[in-house]
Design a protein that fits this description.
Radius of gyration: 34 Å
Distance between the termini: 81 Å
CATH topology of the largest domain: Heat Shock Protein 90
CATH superfamily of the largest domain: Histidine kinase-like ATPase, C-terminal domain
Helix content: 40-55%
Structural class: alpha+beta
Number of strands: 14
Bound molecules: adenosine-5'-diphosphate
Shape: elongated
Number of domains: 3
CATH architecture of the largest domain: 2-Layer Sandwich
CATH class of the largest domain: Alpha Beta
Length: 403
């Protein structure tokens, strides 16, 4: 790059003593960032007022001293070498690209900085003008965002476990209770003075079928976790919706919710984490169910749709016939800890949104004909997948509430 630097050097105007004079000093002095000018020996030739404020030294304490006094001790041994290589190839560039840089204040405290290096040719040779930006506030914000992110990930895991275990509990409680009742009945039929083998057989058949139902629930959870490995895989959202509806069947039936399952055409697969996406759908359906708890004067309807959108996206919408979202709250429902429920944690939608955005998609709420619609938009994989037929709930089938 020697030729480039030579070219660069030729293009740079040489500052005469006059040009480095009063006007130049005024500009440097009033700059909002700390500006330190050094020569090739590394001695400080000029600083501005902001440098005094940022580093806590007076100008007199800095001028003529090695610039290393502003560098934390652990970085000092390397600094002269870096300086020499900059002077060998003096082009404007940020310092330490990709590394975290720190400044050292007079009181010994350190702070994160970004440094821009600019060579200036003067009659006395090349000087380097370093513009130093204190990025403590930005770093603090980044740290907060990072902490928030890890908290969300943690909450995500806790919430997944919570949501899932309550769904599993709902699903297997009923067949387990049925098994106990039927087993007791079977025992009674067998231990009567005149055992009734037909009745006993019927009781045992019922126990077998309930046992299969429990096994199905457990298998669907295992399948969900197999799919949710660390790697993104091709996910069929329709299959995923069906498995969530299957998992929540008892819960939805109990609430007398009519499920309008409108997965009407083949949609392309999306790339993602099956378990995470399943959690989003589960959460949105659970919220829809809870919103409809308040509905007693009309049908409780959960409408789930999937469709191709703009040729290269998949849109899933989950609509309920609940009371809808108060316009005052619509902007806040995705905020962490926002809840209108007495027992709510307010993390569900925040987690759902972070999962969908982590998949380069969008999640938003709108108003439906009665209640709310939650929409998930995800980039489609290129190849369209034919609809699977092995789903626990058939297409366009409504799960009617049990009488
Ligand atoms: P939580 O369910 O613990 O309250 P969420 O983040 O899942 O947390 O939801 C936040 C809030 O969004 C809920 O308290 C509720 O006010 C509103 N909300 C979510 N889903 C619906 C829905 N389907 N209909 C109406 N309001 C909803």
């Amino acid at each position: 790059m020697a030729a480039g630097s030579e070219g660069n050097r030729q293009l740079r105007p040489k500052l005469t003593r006059h040009k480095t004079g009063e006007r130049f000093r005024q500009v440097v002095e009033s700059a909002p960032n700390a500006i330190v000018m050094i020569g090739s020996t590394g001695l400080i030739e000029m600083v501005n007022a902001q440098t005094e404020r940022v580093f806590g030294y007076s100008r007199d304490e800095l001028l003529g001293k090695p610039v290393e006094m502003l560098v934390p001790e652990r970085y000092r041994p390397n600094h002269p070498g870096l300086r020499t290589s900059f002077f060998a190839n003096p082009v404007s560039r940020p310092m330490g690209a990709g590394r975290d840089l720190y400044g050292l204040r007079k009181d010994g405290s350190e702070f994160p900085v970004e440094i821009g290096l600019n060579p200036i040719d003067t009659e006395d040779g090349t000087l380097v003008l370093s513009a130093i930006v204190d990025i403590s506030a930005r770093k603090r914000l980044e740290d907060q965002v990072h902490a928030m992110d890890s908290m969300l990930t943690h909450m995500n895991r806790v919430a997944t476990a919570g949501e899932l275990s309550s769904s599993i509990a709902h699903e297997i409680k009923q067949p387990l209770a049925a098994m106990v009742i039927r087993a007791n009945a079977g025992l009674r039929w067998l231990t009567r003075d005149t055992p009734d083998l037909d009745e006993a057989r019927a009781a045992f058949r019922a126990i077998v079928s309930s046992g299969h139902r429990v096994a199905e629930v457990i298998e669907s959870v295992r399948a969900m976790y197999r799919k949710s490995s660390q790697h993104r895989v091709s996910v069929d959202l329709d299959d995923l919706i069906q498995s969530v509806l299957g998992l929540m069947r008892v819960e939805l039936e109990k609430k007398k919710i009519i499920v309008q399952n409108e997965l009407t055409g083949p949609i392309p697969a999306v790339m993602g984490h099956g378990g995470q996406l399943q959690q989003v759908i589960l959460n949105l359906i659970r919220n829809a169910g809870e919103a409809m708890d308040a509905v007693s004067n009309r049908e409780r309807v959960l409408r789930v749709r999937s469709a191709i959108h703009n040729t290269n996206e998949v849109l899933v919408s989950i609509e309920d016939s609940g009371p809808g979202i108060d316009p005052e709250n619509i902007k806040r429902i995705f905020d962490p800890f926002f809840t209108t429920k007495s027992e709510g944690m307010g993390m569900g939608l925040a987690i759902c949104r972070s999962i969908i955005e982590g998949h380069n998609g969008r999640l938003w709420a709108s108003s439906g004909s009665h209640g709310s619609v939650f929409n998930i938009l995800l980039p489609a994989q290129k190849i369209a997948k034919a609809r699977s037929t092995k789903s626990p709930v058939k297409n366009s089938e409504a799960i009617e509430p049990s009488p």
